[in-house]
Amino acid sequence: MSSTTADASTTGTTVITNIASLVTNDPSLGDGSPLGLIRDAAVVIDGDRIAWTGESREAPATDNRIDAAGRAVIPGFVDSHSHLVFAGDRTQEFNARMSGRAYSAGGIRTTVAATRAASDEELERNLTRYLDEALRQGTTTLETKSGYGLTVEDEARALRIASAHTDEVTYLGAHIVSPDHADDPAGYVALVTGEMLDACAPYARWIDVFCEKGAFDGDQARAILTAGRAKGLHPRVHANQLTYGPGVRLAVELDAASADHCTHLTDADVDALASGATVATLLPGAEFSTRAQWPDARRLLDAGVTVALSTDCNPGSSFTSSVPFCIALAVRDMGMTPDEAVWSATAGGARALRRTDVGRLTPGAYADLALLDAPSHVHLAYRPGVPLVRRVWRRGVRVV
Ligand SMILES: [Zn+2]
């Protein structure tokens, strides 16, 4: 890196120039592909926004200049699915699963107990630790959920803490039936759609439900999402992860922004996704960490479905905050091309959050971008496990 550096003290406009390849996600730019790839490119930042993108030699004059020295620049990742308000970890459970040993601890219930016992400060420290970890790996927009409190007070607390750190907050009181209501699931649904919803709605943008055998069935999920919508929350759904089921079709029917997991899909599910605005968010960290069957991204893409890629970062089934890792898995095992995977982890994530101001590097969008220590975005899959994110700007401020 040479010349000046756009950090918190930089004023005026800044150009990042000598970019070997720039992913804009604007197909009207550059090579005309969905990535809108521009070779020998420059990008101009003005305040918290992108002011200009194009070829280096056409860049306008600016106050500051950064030389990318032939590296690639991409939009910051938009991780539209995580569960980061929690305490404790589940190392022993993971170790047993990966070692082929039986393990009878309580799964999500273990995290619920630890989260309830934690102080506000401990939960917040944990959350900011993982947000920082994600930022260092290029994630500039991150959604996160409640779901490890499962009481009115603990769910509202989780969302209050999350909302201090991200705009994309999801109420997931319907993660599992609370252990306190093990014999009365209907009573728990009444709580989730009643008093708990009232306490949580002020802190959340989204409502989510784990629609799965052993969690909530289609009728319960419909009641939960409909109640949330009446309080101004927009639906998203944990759907078709472990088995076939009604989650995906319910998501499309209710115009959910996203159906997440989408691992077990019938042709009717794929057709439904292709017909609506609901994004299929694939979370390969979960399949990796549970040695489960991969979702078939190729089938969805070939049917015309919009696909997002996210981490599902959580202490039980996918304890990674690395979007580049998920990109590598999606390319290696889910039939995605490197271009598709990078699009899905940036523009796709933005679609899954119904955002047009992130996930793209076009004038007016937020100046959220990552400089890779590589000449091309393809290296994110080509060089798995290598920390290629060298610099990160969020809202025009260099944060990494
Ligand atoms: Zn999840």
TrEMBL record:
User: Which domain of life does this protein belong to?
Assistant: Bacteria
Instruction: Name the job this protein performs.
Output: Catalyzes the hydrolytic cleavage of the carbon-nitrogen bond in imidazolone-5-propanoate to yield N-formimidoyl-L-glutamate. It is the third step in the universal histidine degradation pathway.
Cofactor(s) demanded: Zn(2+); Fe(3+)
Q: Name one Pfam family in it.
A: Amidohydro_1
Question: What is the E.C. number?
Answer: 3.5.2.7
GO cellular component entries: cytoplasm
Query: What is the protein named?
Result: Imidazolonepropionase
Q: Name its GO BP terms in alphabetical order.
A: L-histidine catabolic process to glutamate and formamide
Query: Which pathway is this protein engaged in?
Result: Amino-acid degradation; L-histidine degradation into L-glutamate; N-formimidoyl-L-glutamate from L-histidine: step 3/3
**Which reaction is this enzyme known to catalyze?**
4-imidazolone-5-propanoate + H2O = N-formimidoyl-L-glutamate
**What PANTHER family has UniProt attached to this entry?**
IMIDAZOLONEPROPIONASE, IMIDAZOLONEPROPIONASE-RELATED
- Binding residues for Fe(3+): 81, 83, 238, 312
What keywords is this UniProt entry annotated with? Cytoplasm, Histidine metabolism, Hydrolase, Iron, Metal-binding, Zinc
> How is the cofactor bound, as the UniProt entry phrases it?
Binds 1 zinc or iron ion per subunit.
Protein family per UniProt = Belongs to the metallo-dependent hydrolases superfamily. HutI family.
- The question of whether Nuclease is a record keyword is answered with no
Annotated compartments: Cytoplasm
Where it mainly occurs, coarsely classed, is cytoplasm
